[in-house]
Amino acid sequence: MLIVAALGGNALLRRGEPMTAAAQRANIVRAADALAPLLRDHQVVITHGNGPQVGLLALQNNAYPEVDPYPLDVLDAETEGMIGYMLEIELGHHHGARRIATILTQVVVDPNDPAFARPTKFIGPVYDRDHALAVASSRGWSVAPDGDRWRRVVASPEPQTIVEIDAIRTLLDAGYAVICAGGGGIPVTSTFDGVLTGCEAVIDKDLVSAKLATDLGADALLLLTDVDAVYADWGMTDQRPLRRTTVRELRSLALAGGSMGPKAEAVCRFVEHGGMLAAIGSLSDASRLLMGAAGTVLGHAVADQRSARTEMSIALTNGS
Is residue 147 assigned to a domain? Predict the structure, then answer.
């Protein structure tokens, strides 16, 4: 199978952890352990979030006033390289000479997207309310509640086109596991004659992953995060995890726009465009998600697909 596996930013740097290279490397070791069985048995494209990391780079930017801060598109590119490198190293420990490549990925967005006037994408560390409002006032940021804490929010426009899609296909055809579209890719706008220009945004990684999976004709899309499933009535006394669900049910839920909402929308889009399996769940359950034994699943799990293929093979044999 061809699988797109999307690692959440919080799965790589957990909420409340120190934002150090050592903490991130420890989490990437766990991510590599979870992904290793997938890479052993399938073709895999890996995407990842960058919310904590790009926010940290933005803070470090502001700490050195002698130069103008680097724009978000450049910081997005920096995080793609950093996280891709760490993933390559740790996945290489499992696979030795197995080919693994990271590709910086530009994603075209519409400069008139209304998201530029309505920032929703969380980046950076968490703060208490008063600290967040003070930081926002001093730096000209937008901030919003993220659970019981507050974080910076930036524009998150819709992905239109993945510029390096042909290069990703070429690497897959050559037998590489590909790490790409990190942090939702590098946001760029395009002129009528195809000239690209970076813009200030962080595209949602899950929506880009759904588009990537659709464009590649992937069999499965796995959104791997720090929660075990999508929950109905989240935060209520009667909250319950959704196991097998439908596009209609997922879209009927009131899910947080800056976190679980885009994940639900991403799996819905992938299935609507012909994807066989889409699942949301814990990084540690990656292999079980593919079998439909964990997380929230749309479509047919691997076991169902194998059964269907076996029945088809028997029918064709009997027919001949």
Answer: no
